[in-house]
From TrEMBL:
It comes from Fusibacillus kribbianus. Residues 7-67 form the HTH cro/C1-type domain. This is Helix-turn-helix transcriptional regulator. One of its GO terms (molecular function) is DNA binding. InterPro entries: Cro/C1-type_HTH, Lambda_DNA-bd_dom_sf.
Length: 71
């Protein structure tokens, strides 16, 4: 299974927010942001901080893709 952060990127567009602004607002590392940019794994703490900063649920920022899925 793989993770996909397309929902997060769409949410940032809707909120007119840049990735840099999210890093500052959520107090996460640029390294974590880079991992998400490559659909890599990040800690639940990072996801929680993002949800808190964006006032959303985890289902609003991440999607789990079954192996072989296209996204």
């Amino acid at each position: 299974m793989a993770v996909c952060y397309n929902k997060l990127w769409k949410l940032l567009i809707d909120k007119n927010m840049s990735k840099t602004q999210l890093v500052k607002a959520a107090k996460i590392s640029t390294n974590a942001m880079a991992k998400m940019g490559k659909n890599g794994d990040v800690s639940t703490e990072v996801l929680r901080k993002i949800c808190t900063a964006l006032e959303c649920g985890i289902e609003d920022i991440i999607e789990i893709i079954p192996d072989g899925g296209n996204q």
